[in-house]
Task: inverse folding
């Protein structure tokens, strides 16, 4: 989130799209309803009418996978009616930037596309620079090559007729949403967007969110109270897991993973540290060397020296262009290229796409270690009802993990609040925390390397590895410490002191920090700010519900990021009723500002979007691999025969796994005419390993179901409660029919398209509840993140003669 | 002082936190269930489910109404269940003097199966259930153990949207009237359900019969229990 949960209450309009917030983030509705009480309009755009829709002002059904068409239509509406927040757009976004001559867009393709590699040369989309190397701008927004004009041209095609026809949303509903939401373009109004996996899990997932951010920039809704682009993260600590690099492509603190293209630290830092010649641009990533060196120093301790690049050479290096995301990791496993592995807190045999392939891939392992609270379909893959355990050679170790309440630690929530949780009781049986498991396993591996050496032992033995797992010590290490006595600006810090904030991190090895973003959360020994529960706030903060003394938020306890964009260049709040920051007597009050510099118009003032090299919000985003403007492409499997926006049917860069099990239905395939979308539900969590073993929750949601319209049910002769078979080109699944008015057929490109929806949390280890819905979904991913396209694929459905997966 | 629960169904997201928290506090067994084409599960109140979120869906003039009704005992000010059981076993069902909470005691075991059924039938909202294992009648006790310890009922404690509210009866009635006035601006047919007679006050935005059968008060033909209840009623009214 750019904001935090409480801030939702400050919105004048709330667009919930790509999310079923009331079901998956129940607490969010505490704040949504507070906003509604104060007069906010709450809009839910989603394929099905859900518990979220029930509490919204209105629900608009949308065919899954057409969000860019829907939102592109909104951009056109904003520009045609000139509803932008003019001063914000001109001063704070790159709308006025001139794009270089190489940029082109023709028939669904941007310039620089290489069809062989399915990749763009992103250099073709660079901004034009002046003689000083600063991006050229036209603040009148008239230059035909300025971002504003290119944007206008790009979305010219997204007219009501075409958008309505492809999304299946009536023109009346489109206009209703556009009108209500864009009313927040006024300086004293704010609209917030709440999204989740309904936006990310598409082959255009990243561009869905890009477009949301663009709309918010056009309406001046970023940095202000009640605004923002708000990712409702999928579990209590998924924000923390991203920050600390659970995913392969980054190191903790959002540093790109080292590759063989950067063999030395100097190469790495040179390639990854942006520079600007614009004195008003903060260009925060210029500090990357300090953060990277402090991270290496934290990892390798005394073994990290300036001479050895602080141990950079010891890090594994990825091959440039190779995708190590889990979808392709399982692809390699299926191809027999992996011998073994460890899976912690993840149930891929239920939750990865095309689960048949995942389950087959597991059988090719020699060994598997699973850390879990319960036995799952993954730890028990070898006794899956479809396999003969005797024929599975894999040796499986199940390490029992304790639950959250049984250990100390932190969670970082969607609003970036870093909150300590205390152990409530001793772990059950022999279960242990996963931190303990990792620490102990590695200690033993290190012991073996010490004894037997082996290949490249220094890669294993050089770490400053903890003697035992201790959550408090780990929190101190994450914050970071001084490695020697240092004097900075007249203040002396002793060796071993905690670093008070990331501004003090150094690139010379005198500081450590396992994650610069969290530097400041544990600023001195005994002062763990994640433990704070103090509710005091100033009257100005209380108006917003900022609660700056409750826990700690990264970065530097800032509660609303990019908050310098909430004031005009002179420092006056756009919305004087709900100021986030105020320039008073030569300093800022309210929230922690994005840097202490004076207002932008003043001497030494700075641009608000400090993480971008140019300092401006990116309406034109040349950093995404699949284009600087979001463009509508159909999902990998689509019920339409032609994309009305261009002759490019799918995202030209989308990732597709290509094994014998990775089949895709062709567009408008008559064998699979129905769109399937998959989701979670309140009562179960992710792959269901925890919640199916929680009897009260299983009681409330006992079995796999498929939600469908009365119209489709009538066509197929299916009655409510009937067992049915849902089938894609990859597999079939049994489920109970839930025939409902909450799903409606769509009119798409002149034909009726049916959509059905299924939860994905059920699996065979819970007897009679059904088995993985993901046996139906394809191994297709977004080109930026490789997140799988769980939200839209093609299936057919029929009444079941008999069932084996469901107890009925 | 008499306590009340105010349930504002216009704020309910059917997260079922109340349903689950209720089971947890009462240490109830999980009940085996099946998917039958609705999210409502278990299908009805049971001796192990004092609280059940009921789901009902309607499409009227093109608009979907998905209605949620967190069902529980209404804790009638003059409970027909108590009147009915008193005629067989005095004190099997009691009203806690301090709070007005209606409680099925262990003595309900002494009711015959027939008598227990009569007590169930006497309830205009069809709430009490016979626990076949223990022979006792079972229903929501408004977490009287918690209330007596100065805590609020679990269903209220767990609710994050402001649907469930607990407090002094006068305060709850005031809150209910305030919310009604606000909700009526959007839904003119909104009403409080039998608020004058019940300690558990529901606010609904749609006609009550759209929620479920027993959102309405179901008055039964007069049986022996009702007859006896009628005889004692004036005295009870005097006693308050």
Result:
């Amino acid at each position: 989130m750019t904001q935090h949960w409480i801030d939702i209450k400050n919105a004048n309009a709330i667009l919930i799209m790509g999310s079923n917030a009331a079901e998956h983030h129940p607490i969010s509705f505490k704040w949504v309803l507070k906003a509604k009480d104060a007069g906010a309009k709450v809009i839910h755009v989603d394929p099905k009418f859900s518990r979220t829709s029930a509490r919204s002002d209105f629900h608009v059904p949308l065919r899954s996978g057409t969000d860019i068409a829907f939102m592109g239509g909104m951009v056109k509406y904003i520009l045609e009616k000139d509803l932008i927040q003019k001063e914000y757009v001109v001063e704070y976004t790159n709308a006025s930037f001139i794009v270089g001559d190489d940029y082109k867009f023709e028939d669904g393709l941007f310039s620089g596309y290489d069809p062989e590699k399915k990749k763009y040369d992103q250099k073709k989309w660079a901004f034009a620079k002046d003689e000083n190397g600063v991006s050229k701008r036209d603040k009148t927004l008239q230059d035909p090559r300025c971002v504003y004009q290119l944007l206008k041209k790009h979305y010219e095609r997204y007219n009501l007729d075409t958008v309505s026809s492809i999304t299946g949303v009536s023109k009346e509903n489109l206009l209703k949403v556009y009108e209500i939401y864009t009313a927040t373009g006024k300086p004293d109004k704010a609209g917030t967007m709440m999204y989740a996996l309904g936006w990310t899990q598409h082959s255009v997932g990243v561009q869905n969110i890009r477009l949301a951010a663009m709309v918010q920039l056009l309406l001046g809704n970023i940095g202000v109270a009640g605004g923002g682009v708000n990712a409702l993260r999928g579990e209590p600590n998924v924000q923390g897991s991203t920050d600390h690099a659970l995913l392969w492509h980054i190191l903790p603190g959002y540093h790109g993973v080292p590759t063989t293209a950067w063999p030395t630290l100097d190469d790495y830092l040179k390639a990854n540290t942006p520079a600007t010649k614009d004195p008003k641009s903060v260009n925060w990533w210029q500090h990357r060397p300090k953060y990277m060196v402090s991270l290496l120093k934290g990892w390798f301790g005394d073994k990290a020296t300036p001479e050895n690049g602080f141990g950079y050479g010891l890090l594994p290096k990825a091959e440039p262009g190779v995708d190590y995301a889990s979808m392709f990791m399982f692809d390699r496993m299926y191809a027999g290229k992996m011998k073994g592995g460890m899976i912690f807190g993840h149930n891929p045999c239920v939750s990865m796409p095309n689960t048949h392939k995942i389950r087959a891939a597991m059988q090719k392992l020699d060994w598997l270690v699973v850390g879990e609270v319960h036995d799952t379909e993954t730890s028990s893959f070898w006794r899956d009802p479809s396999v003969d355990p005797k024929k599975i050679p894999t040796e499986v170790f199940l390490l029992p993990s304790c639950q959250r309440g049984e250990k100390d630690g932190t969670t970082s929530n969607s609003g970036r609040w870093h909150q300590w949780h205390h152990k409530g009781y001793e772990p059950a049986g022999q279960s242990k925390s996963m931190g303990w498991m990792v620490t102990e396993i590695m200690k033993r591996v290190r012991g073996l390397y010490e004894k037997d050496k082996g290949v490249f032992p220094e890669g294993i033995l050089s770490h400053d590895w903890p003697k035992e797992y201790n959550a408090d010590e780990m929190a101190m290490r994450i914050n970071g410490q001084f490695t020697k006595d240092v004097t900075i600006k007249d203040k002396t810090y002793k060796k071993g002191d905690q670093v008070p904030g990331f501004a003090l991190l150094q690139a010379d090895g005198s500081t450590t920090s396992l994650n610069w973003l969290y530097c400041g959360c544990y600023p001195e020994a005994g002062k763990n700010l994640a433990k704070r529960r103090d509710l005091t706030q100033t009257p100005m903060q209380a108006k917003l519900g900022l609660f700056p003394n409750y826990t700690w938020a990264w970065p530097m306890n800032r509660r609303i990021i990019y908050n310098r964009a909430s004031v005009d260049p002179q420092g006056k709040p756009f919305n004087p009723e709900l100021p986030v920051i105020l320039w008073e007597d030569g300093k800022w009050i309210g929230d922690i500002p994005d840097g202490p510099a004076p207002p932008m118009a003043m001497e030494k003032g700075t641009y608000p979007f400090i993480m971008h090299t140019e300092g401006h919000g990116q309406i034109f985003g040349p950093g995404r691999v699949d284009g600087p403007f979001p463009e509508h492409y159909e999902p990998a499997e689509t019920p339409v025969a032609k994309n009305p926006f261009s002759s490019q049917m799918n995202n030209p860069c989308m990732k597709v796994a290509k094994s014998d099990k990775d089949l895709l239905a062709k567009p408008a395939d008559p064998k699979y005419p129905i769109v399937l979308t998959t989701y979670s539900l309140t009562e179960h969590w992710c792959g269901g390993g925890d919640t199916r073993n929680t009897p009260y929750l299983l009681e409330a949601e006992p079995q796999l179901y498929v939600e469908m319209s009365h119209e489709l049910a009538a066509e197929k002769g299916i009655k409510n409660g009937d067992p049915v078979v849902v089938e894609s080109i990859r597999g079939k699944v049994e489920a109970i029919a839930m025939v409902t008015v909450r799903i409606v057929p769509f009119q798409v490109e002149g034909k009726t398209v049916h959509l059905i929806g299924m939860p994905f949390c059920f699996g065979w280890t819970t007897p009679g509840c059904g088995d993985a819905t993901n046996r139906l979904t394809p191994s297709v991913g977004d080109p930026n993140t490789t997140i799988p396209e769980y939200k839209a694929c093609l299936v057919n459905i029929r009444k079941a003669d008999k069932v084996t997966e469901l107890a009925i | 002082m008499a306590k009340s629960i105010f349930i504002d169904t216009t704020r309910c997201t059917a997260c079922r936190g109340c349903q689950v928290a209720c089971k947890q506090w009462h240490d109830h067994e999980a009940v085996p269930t099946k998917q039958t084409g609705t999210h409502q599960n278990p299908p009805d109140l049971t001796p192990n489910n004092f609280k059940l979120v009921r789901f009902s869906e309607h499409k009227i003039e093109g608009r979907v109404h998905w209605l949620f009704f967190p069902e529980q005992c209404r804790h009638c000010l003059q409970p027909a269940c108590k009147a009915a059981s008193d005629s067989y076993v005095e004190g099997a069902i009691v009203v806690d003097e301090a709070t007005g909470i209606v409680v099925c005691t262990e003595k309900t075991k002494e009711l015959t199966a027939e008598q227990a059924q009569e007590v169930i039938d006497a309830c205009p909202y069809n709430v009490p259930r016979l626990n076949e294992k223990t022979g006792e009648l079972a229903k929501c006790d408004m977490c009287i153990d918690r209330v007596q310890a100065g805590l609020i009922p679990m269903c209220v404690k767990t609710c994050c949207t402001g649907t469930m509210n607990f407090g002094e009866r006068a305060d709850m009635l005031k809150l209910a009237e305030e919310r009604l006035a606000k909700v009526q601006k959007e839904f003119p047919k909104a009403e409080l359900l039998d608020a004058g007679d019940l300690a558990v006050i529901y606010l609904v935005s749609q006609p009550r019969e759209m929620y479920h059968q027993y959102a309405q008060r179901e008055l039964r033909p007069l049986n022996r229990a009702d007859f006896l209840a009628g005889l004692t009623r004036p005295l009870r009214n005097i006693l308050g």
Observations:
- The interface with chain B takes residues 22-23, 26-27, 29-30, 33, 49, 51-55, 59, 682-683, 695-705, 720-722, 736-742, 807-808 of chain A (CB under 8 Å).
- The mean pLDDT of chain A is 97.
